[in-house]
Amino acid sequence: MLQTIDTGRSLPGEFRPDQPTGALLSSDPALEGTSSPGRHRIGSFFVWLLVFVPASCALALLTQSSTLTFVTTTIAIVPLARIIGYATRQIALQTNPAFGGLINATFGNIIELFIAVLAIRKGLHVVVQASIVGSIVGNILLLTGLSIFVGGLRYKEQRFNKDSIGVSSTMIIISVVGLAIPTMFALTVKPDSRQVQILSDAVAVVMALVYVAGLIFAFATHKHLFDASDEIRETHEPPAIGKGAAAGILLAATIAVGVESQILVTNVEQAAAALGLTQTFIGMIVIAVISNIAEKANAIEFALEDKLDISLEIGLSSAIQIALFVVPTLILISEIAGYGFSLVFSMFEIISVVFAVMIVNYLSADGRCNWLEGAQLISVYLIIAIAFFFI
């Protein structure tokens, strides 16, 4: 339910899937048995992308091209997201599961939080609402779909723990209800803006309480469903760097993300107009995808290691944290600062989330999957993305 297993651990008592078929992907010894110490590194590709961090800052200071600045900033956020994911993983490997889970919950969505707060302050509520929906739909359909598809190319059939996924699915449904009620209230009752804001605040409080209850459930009363100490002993993955170094990297990357988020939000309106894209599409697709790139990379890696439980939990947990942690935080900040942000989404955004939840719950009901089901999830995401291009 919560992203406590983003540390490379699996669930106890899980079903063991078939052995690799080798028909579609060649066998890689590094993906079988134990994990090598360098298995989960940042990656040279992401390191090279760091050149866009100073480049985007230079363009923001020295040029008037909002489009070029926006594009380079968007690319610059990708390696920073990867580095944040790497640093939180290293810290989690050297701490207890509860603290590691809290670190992942906090910093796993730091990019969305930074961008959303800055966008709300600028009055870009449409971008924020679209990015919230995009992150939820993207994690449920795209991240999960990619994991199942890529894992299915290597393994004929993969199985996962239906109990833990079922808990996460229920939390997702609760999240959708919380997001949909203010919208339905605004569309059917026709209340004044103050009533809508009060309802949004109340819903945010309830969702935050549910999130806290989920933490207690995962870390205290039912931690046996999520604890994966057996898998840690099996993989023997040692930390690559110390906690101090990881904390320093995390701090530096977080500061850099704050700077890049400010540049991105400053240029998003002009860039959207110049590129012929709507602010809804920018939030729903562009911002949502780049801010969750670290989760997608980790989930695919775990699927290739035949740890689909972890891949699915990463996707579902990220979606849950957006709805139950990021959204209440945004409502709280908005209420304190007087930004007027509410939970009234467009009907198409709500329908997209509902469809995503319905489909993923149906496909995950039997505890087994194959590459075709992954392709089906990806296809639904692409259909929704195409539709949002015209909104």
Instruction: Using the CA coordinates, give the radius of gyration.
Output: 20 Å
Strand content: under 5%
Number of helical regions: 15
Number of strands: 2
* Mean pLDDT figure: 80
The figure for the number of domains is 1
Order of strands across the main sheet: 1-2
The SS-based structural class is: mainly alpha
Outline of the structure:
The chain has 391 residues and is an all-alpha fold. The protein has helices spanning 44-49, 52-62, 66-93, 97-107, 110-121, 125-154, 162-188, 193-221, 229-235, 243-275, 279-291, 293-304, 308-337, 347-363, 371-389; strands at residues 158-159, 368-369. It has one domain (3-389).
Please give a structural write-up:
The protein is mainly α and 391 residues long. It has one domain (3-389). It is 73% helix and 1% strand. It has a two-stranded antiparallel sheet with strand order 1-2.
